Fold this sequence. Notes:
Blueprint: E1 23-24, E2 27-30, E3 35-38, E4 41-42, H1 43-49, H2 52-61, H3 67-78, H4 85-89, H5 99-111, H6 122-147, H7 161-170, H8 176-188, H9 199-203, E5 218-219
Parallel strand pairs: 1-5
Antiparallel strand pairs: 2-3, 3-4
Amino acid sequence: MKPINYLIEQTYGRGMENLVAGETAIGKIDGVNGKLWFRGYDIEELAKHSSFDEVSYLVIHGELPTPSQYAGWIKALEDRQDPPLHAMSVVKTLPAAHAMMLFRTMLSVAACQIPEGENVRLDAQWRRPARLLAWCSTLAAAAICHMQGTGANPHNPNKSFAEDFLIRSLCRTPTKDEVKAFDVCLIVQAEHGGKCRNIGSHHGRIHRRGPRQRGAGRYERPVRETARWRQ
């Protein structure tokens, strides 16, 4: 985020309406016309032609992945599916609570044991997104299972991020429509803080209502007319 080093006229409205929090090259939202873009790609095109696995890479790196980049990103996620054991076991000591409360506590414990926690080198920073995303998926699914009175389910290799999470949290094989609906929810929310903390809440919303669209900030890059996806 670039600092604003010039005076601007600031007005205030309800919530965060018209509030410029800073400049961003990640997302652009047009609330009046109901439009949303990530890195210049129209959200509707991304929802049609890409998966959350691809869009998460796009948000971090600025471009949709090539086949080799996609394979590397998926491997990075696969290699980090196991959070610290203390984070997985602490849920057994907690009182009955909503899955999001359980997940928040589990994530806090995991954060105490994150590798390279104090490493500020750039290469260490680039390793964190995959770890955080993979850990959050595992922890959120385990929290939902605990709330339902069952144990955590194993990771499912070769499944998309959305399908794997639904299998682990629903304790069954989801339908194609469920997977697509959840995947779109994740895509639409991908820019908002990485959406890791919202994974569990999406799980309960895929049949009740559509995803919320939120965002604020200035956009630096030109909007691209159509999304590109892996060939």
